[in-house]
Amino acid sequence: MVAVQERETHTKEELPIVGFSGPDAPRREDMRRCVHCGLCLAACPTFRVLGSELDSPRGRIFQMRMVAEGKVSLYDPNFRQHMFACLDCRACETACPSGVEYGKLIEATRSQLKPAGRTEALLLRVVLGEVFSHPMLLDVAGLALRFYQKSGLQALARRTGVLKRLGKLGELEGLLPRAQGGLLRPRLPEVLPAKGTRRARVALVSGCVMSQLFGETNLATARVLVENGCEVVTPPDQRCCGALHEHAGERELARQLARHNIEVFEKLGVDAIIINAAGCGSMLKEYGHLLEHDPQYAARARAFSAKVRDINEYLVEIGFRPPKGEIRRRVTYQDACHLRHAQRISEPPRVILKSIPGIELVEMWESDMCCGSAGIYNITNSDISMQLLDMKMDNIVAVQPQTIVASNPGCIIQLAYGAKKRGLNVDVVHPVDLLDEAYRREAGPYRLA
Fold first, then answer.
1. What is the rounded distance in angstroms from the CA atom of residue 366 to the CA atom of residue 67?
2. d(CA 399, CA 361)
3. CATH topology of domain 322-443
4. Residue 195: alpha-carbon gap to chain centroid
């Protein structure tokens, strides 16, 4: 009875959070920033596809408040469905006039939710808890993928039609990108000297997906940095940034990876930490938030994040040398969500592309709308993902590019799949791939040795 009387002394807005628990609970002050104006609706991919307020940013925040006030159960399966239907693209943050940090809210909420059944729990434990958390297991998985592709097994499986008999799994196989390099993944030397006078000493985050599938792009990133006077250090004992874990609600796993990476990079004595994957860069820049309640790592995490730079951002920041090599190509640029909306970086990739002689940059409609990749969203929510991809490909087809450019591996994989489905004769590359090509056309390859 006393508890009831104490509860009644609070106003509605001052009620304590009862549906969430622990330091990771979404904060009431963050939820209260949303004034439900609706300006986020047009920017939200899931609202545009599903047309439901419950699958809009303001609708999800309203549901969070209902859970926080004890009016909706945290374990309501419908609540969970709406939270995980979100792509976490954060386009709503760009559109929001009230400064709602929606990304923090959705990720904090997901961290409170349990896996939907034993199968999902097992997949999370095996894929995120083991494979993506341990470099050796990730190398084994990458080697298996490259063997499947380069031994002829993939071609045989597709030619014989065996994949069609696997149903949904066979369809998802089509999303697999062609891994760059040979059977063994390309590896970066631990230290590369700057070309000419050294302007900076930087560390390169090689990443998990990038190192396994886009090793040549990592090499191109290192060459471009070297070309612009940077000594490049690539620590071999770095691990996954934890972005996939955080988006899936596995926050403690993300923290373990963050602590490890902080310890690895902070002893290198570098001026900047460079990343060429937008989703990973966003995660690395938010280590300070992830570890804010950790007394041993909070300050170290903030110092680490302060040094993180996306490769596009850093090159423009230091004043990269415009290349002289010509590439005659018509290209369009897709804004990776976590570069455009989370990191608020849109112009630097375009500056780089426009600096390359012969490049014709044609802007597509809604280049900043999510392509539907969103980490593993194209696997977990494939129907919505494919609808978004179809919308994106319509916009791409309208400008008739020869090359599609994106600054995130997930976008590159998704757009390459969309191009294949449409039968388009286009390639999909990272901006740094084109800049590196222009440098090499100008003076021959700079060999990594």
1. 34
2. 10
3. Rossmann fold (3.40.50)
4. 31
The sign of the CA dihedral 260, 89, 431, 195 is: negative
Q: How far is CA 296 from CA 219, 262, 263, 288, 319, in A?
A: 34, 11, 11, 12, 36
In 151-291, alpha helices (H) = 153-160, 168-173, 209-213, 215-227, 243-247, 251-266, 278-285, 287-290
End-to-end CA, the chain: 75
Is beta strand 230-233 parallel, antiparallel or unpaired with respect to 191-192? antiparallel
Tokens of 24: 């990771």
The architecture (CATH level 2) of 2-112 comes to Orthogonal Bundle (1.10)
Q: Which residues make Cβ contacts (< 8 Å) with residue 148, sequence separation at least 6?
A: 154
pLDDT tens-digit profile of 253-291? 999 999 999 999 999 999 999 999 999 999 999 999 999
Residue ranges per domain, the chain? 2-112, 322-443
Task: Give the pairing type, strands 272-275 and 200-204.
Answer: parallel
pTM of the full structure: 0.89
pLDDT digits (tens, 9 = 90+) for 299-311: 999 999 999 999 9
d(CA 404, CA 416): 9
Q: What is the DSSP string of 97-157?
A: TT---HHHHHHHHHHHSPPSSHHHHHHIIIIIIIITT-HHHHHHHHHHHHHHHHSSHHHHH
Distance CA 157, CA 404 (A): 28
